[in-house]
Automatic annotation (TrEMBL):
Domain of life the protein comes from: Bacteria
Alphabetical keyword list: DNA-binding, Endonuclease, Hydrolase, Nuclease, Restriction system
Domain Type I restriction modification DNA specificity: 66-204
Descriptive protein name: Restriction endonuclease subunit S
GO molecular function per UniProt: endonuclease activity
Family per record: Belongs to the type-I restriction system S methylase family.
NCBIfam families noted in UniProt: antiphage_MADS5
Length: 473
């Protein structure tokens, strides 16, 4: 139990709020720390932004991709390493879309549900539609540089300030006017320059990494002469349309195996896509892997422990995020052979069939994941000498690879791939030299993402270390 005595002046400063979680929050503690120890001038957030708004709440009419639609991203989509298939909203029937368009150089803060997650936009976000559940900040770099403002808000001190005003019962919310008076120290110019350079480096690296990954996937399709897949060429759970008819097909009894009777596994549409790949040189997925084939971290006893000697467990919902939090576990129950090795290709092995879900998506194990512990729900793979791991990742992360993996799913509420079907997925084989180029491109991109995270962490650490130094002096 936590308890604290409060002063009358604190009630006046908090608009007479009497709820104890507010006065015990880290944000309130940070305000008192700044008032007491900060050696610099303090400004308010509203003085450092030209605009602070959330976008208009509007009716969303979801449609299939096309000329009459715009990509729509939720807050969780925007915080992922690579944005997955977004929803599409109708230009005609969804008003106020202009107020929801994003542009480079903005700071976005999640304001509903999970509060205080933060993102600095870059050129890859230009013109896309972001949910109204994001507070948008347009920094004007008056006394505080953009990168410094971002690092401060992303620090543990900024997070406490952002989330202290959350209101609501089951689902918490914050509004732009709740954070406009958030106090911000005006750090010295040399410190600001160092922090801003690190954040700029991080943002640029993420932008370049996304471009490299898109290029790698495109190179696979170009080298194999495979056209892009149209939405009509596979079954999916999408939006209702007057002209969209349910899929039906006939299979002979001899075509039904003992593995499954799920119609999704026998899709004739996806079979045509597979045959398109099989027209050229290919290997089945099982032939691209080492002797372990598909394996997982398995199950193990979990004892949560916050300690420098703990090991972090990363689950499926967290692994695709730019900043992976995970849970800290005692090492005593974790064997070293369960830890991830660099170059593994991972498939998210449980989930639902929504187009924007992470289920059946792939991720490349880079320097950040090396030596980490991941959930047993991941399907893990190590390649053999026939196929480089970066190339296999580029193929499985393409639309073809994703649809082939999805075809193997089984289950109702929570689905999982059937391994016996998964091992037969065709993998196109091109010239070894070209595969190695794509492999290098993927590894370069994921190293960029690792370096971007390190640069951002260093900037945030500089902010936190500076604030902590005031209390020691």
């Amino acid at each position: 139990m936590r308890a604290i005595k409060i002063k009358n002046s604190w009630l006046e400063e908090s608009d007479l709020r009497l709820d104890s979680p507010f006065h015990l929050s880290e944000g309130v503690v940070t305000k008192r720390l700044l008032d007491k120890f900060c050696p610099y001038t303090i400004t308010d957030l509203k003085n450092e932004v030209s605009e602070l708004f959330k976008g208009d709440i509007h009716k969303r009419v979801y449609v299939s991709p096309g000329n009459g639609s715009l990509e729509f991203y939720s807050a969780s989509d925007l915080l992922k390493t690579s944005i997955l298939n977004p929803k599409h909203v109708s230009k005609k029937y969804s008003p106020h879309l202009e107020t929801l368009k994003l542009h480079p150089g903005w700071i976005l803060i999640s304001r509903s549900g999970t509060l205080g997650n933060i993102l600095l936009t870059n050129k890859t976000h230009e013109g896309i539609i972001g949910t109204d559940d994001l507070v948008r900040l347009k920094p004007k770099e008056n006394q505080i540089l953009k990168g410094v403002l971002y690092a401060y808000l992303a620090s543990k001190y900024g997070y406490g300030l952002l989330t202290q005003s959350g209101y609501g019962g089951v689902v918490k919310h914050i509004e732009p006017h709740h954070i406009e008076n958030l106090p911000i120290p005006i750090f010295p110019n040399d410190l600001q320059k160092t922090i801003d350079d690190l954040i700029s480096k991080s943002s640029n690296l993420r932008e370049k990494a996304k471009g490299e990954l898109i290029s790698a996937t495109n190179q696979v399709l170009n080298q194999t002469s495979l056209p892009e897949i149209d939405y009509s060429e596979f079954e999916h759970f999408g939006n209702h349309k007057a002209d969209r008819r349910p899929t039906s097909f006939v299979r002979k009894r001899s075509e039904i195996t003992s593995f499954t009777i799920n119609a999704f596994n026998y899709s004739k549409k996806v079979e045509r896509l597979e045959n398109r790949v099989r027209q050229s040189i290919f290997l089945e997925l099982q032939d691209c892997l080492d002797e372990n084939k598909f394996f997982s971290s398995g199950s193990f006893k979990r004892f949560e422990l916050e300690s420098p000697n703990s090991i972090r467990l990363i689950n499926q919902s967290d692994i695709f995020n730019l900043r992976k939090q995970g849970k800290m576990l005692a090492k005593i129950y974790v064997k070293s052979d369960k830890l991830v090795e660099y170059g593994e290709v991972l498939i998210a092995g449980v989930g639902t069939l929504g187009e924007g879900e992470t289920f059946c998506r792939t991720i490349f194990a880079n320097e950040e994941l090396e030596g980490q512990l991941i959930s047993g729900e991941f399907i893990r793979m190590k390649t053999n000498s026939k196929v480089p791991s970066g190339y296999l990742y580029a193929w499985l992360s393409s639309d073809y690879g994703f649809r082939f993996i999805r075809k193997t799913q089984s289950g109702t509420k929570l689905c999982r791939p059937i391994h016996e079907l998964l091992k037969n997925i065709p993998v196109p084989i091109i010239e070894k030299e070209e595969m190695l180029k794509i492999d290098e491109q993927v590894k370069k991109a994921y190293t960029m993402l690792f370096e971007a995270l390190n640069a951002e962490n260093k900037a945030i650490e500089l902010v936190e270390r500076e604030i902590e130094s005031w209390q020691k002096s």
